[in-house]
Amino acid sequence: MVYDEGLAERIRGRLGADPAVTEKRMFGGVAFLYEGNMTVGVTGDDLMVRVGPDHTDAALARPGARAFDMTGRPMRGWVVVDGAAVAEDDALVAWIDEGRAFAASLPPK
């Protein structure tokens, strides 16, 4: 699957200087991990964000967000954000920071 390389590059610009961040191809796109835990990723034109189970409902209430569902069973703790909803840098940065904050709360892998 092809993913939005421009969106991935914008994420790299925000996370790239952090030595704890790595990239990995997954879900037909690219994922960004913080100390081995996924933070955000790009699949198609959309942004995947790991927000954690306790923040799922609030995340789903935000513009452009929907449940992350690749198998017919939505994954609690994950959302997909429509690419158009993160066209502005402020919106993208907010999602990236939320994903990184959740990943940072987990033990390193």
From TrEMBL:
<feature type="domain" description="TfoX N-terminal">
    <location>
        <begin position="20"/>
        <end position="101"/>
    </location>
</feature>
<protein>
    <submittedName>
        <fullName>TfoX/Sxy family protein</fullName>
    </submittedName>
</protein>
<dbReference type="InterPro" id="IPR007076">
    <property type="entry name" value="TfoX_N"/>
</dbReference>
<dbReference type="Pfam" id="PF04993">
    <property type="entry name" value="TfoX_N"/>
</dbReference>
